[in-house]
Amino acid sequence: MKFLIEKVWMLALLCSFAGLAQSVENDTSKTILLILGSGNLNTSIERAEMGFNVYNSKKDIDYIIVSGGCGAHSSSICEATIMADVLIAKGVPETIIFKEEKSKSTAQNYCYSRELKHSDGTKLINQGDQLFVVSNHWHAMSVSGCFNDNDLAISKYIIEGNIIPKPDSKTDYGAMYDNCMNNPNYCKSVLWPKIGAAYSLKGDPANQHKFIEDLYITGPDSSASYSKIAKTIPEVSNYWNSGIDATFYNKFQDLIYIFKGTDYLTLKPGTLSMVGEHTKPIQTLFSELPDHWQTGHLDAAFFDSTTKYMYLFKGAEYVKFRYKKYKVQIVDSPKMITDLVENWPFNWGTGDVDAALFTEATNEVLLYRGQEMLRLKFEGDKLMMLNTSPQKVNLAWPTEFWGDRN
Per the omega criterion (within 30 degrees of 0), is the bond before 193 cis? Predict the structure, then answer.
């Protein structure tokens, strides 16, 4: 216990020095609150109230991130939603509150929060931003330190309460800070295997293709093969070698569509050669996208070849398009993802899926979120779950490309 307490004070000193070492923020820097949630209802409320006090005292907060998933540690609450509701009830404008509702641990609080984007696709937390990490627990030190060292945010922690670890504390947050500071693949390891995009070709149900970070993965999970996107799809620019947002296969054109940011490109199956010399804006393909979908990225997409419907996902919403004679037409206005899937799982929050694919051989839809997946089938306009709950994605760690997992 003495050793652990010494690590807490050492971590506090390191975080303080790291904050002092950061350069002065630039003209475009933001001031952000990051409130860390808890599976305990009262604790999440208490932390939200702490965050409100900081917001109310500073008056220059640009936005607030509330971080915490649904059902973490077998809880019955959605941490981010609970905290957002507290802030809104106290008068904080809903437009400046961003929910991160995938995390199940402090390490995931950090890794998922640093990935958050505005609707236009730009990152929420950037180099030079002033970041205040709020909690009533000493884990805020570790998260703040990680943002200082890895993301070059000017981060400080605000803790109300006793920072000394309890005797039964199971997590060494000092070790978490050491790991995130010294391991370049820290968040890749924490979030593995978070699928970024996926598609399936016609015929063989095992003919699945996935993107994770800078990797291109083919085949069923149990026997998947890995390669670098840059090597597998050499014709694309460096911009497309990592962080693919969404993809689908249109068998009627025999083309693979790849989306990133505001643009898309098309590839021929087999050779994966690029069709055309240039990428194109997403709006040229989906000209009828609603206003708040017009800029930025897609979260996921799939093409149902049996009905010729395309489904696009962004945040908590999806939009349905009809493919007809090489034209794409919107079917209706955006709807909630939770309305598309019957008995949407509680621990998947309000949506925010990472990837999707349609398998023609089995007429199944796979949705990916975090480290889990849902197997579904259409019954009319509804997707019905084929399992009683989300399943873990079982992909082996890519040691050949990323080194040993720490």
Answer: yes
Token pair of 202 as six digits: 């016609």
CB-count exposure of residue 83 (10 Å: 0-12, 13-18, 19+): buried
DSSP-derived secondary structure for 191-248: H-S---EEEE-SS-TT-EEEEETTEEEES-GGG-EEEEHHHHSTTS-GGGGS---EEE
Q: Within the chain, which residues score under 70 in pLDDT?
A: 1-27, 162, 165-170, 203-205
| Interval 166-194: pLDDT, tens | 666 667 788 899 999 999 999 999 999 99
Report the b/e string of 342-376 with b at 16+ CB within 10 A.
eebbebbbbbbbbbbbbbbeeebbbbbbbbbbbbb
Report how far residue 269's alpha carbon sits from residue 71's, in angstroms, rounded to the nearest whole number: 40
**317-324/280-281 β-pairing:** unpaired
CA 260 and chain centroid, separation = 14
Q: In terms of Cα–Cα distance, which of 6, 48, 12, 5 is closest to 144?
A: 12
Instruction: Return d(Cα 128, Cα 25) in angstroms, integer.
Output: 5
Q: Which residue has the tokens 């997946």?
A: 373
pLDDT of residue 22: 46
Say what the pTM is: 0.92
Determine the distance from the C-alpha atom of residue 335 to the mean position of all C-alpha atoms in its chain, rounded to a whole number: 20
Crossing angle of helices 2-21 and 139-151, in 10° steps, is 40
Nearest to residue 81, comparing CAs of 71, 73, 91?
Answer: 71
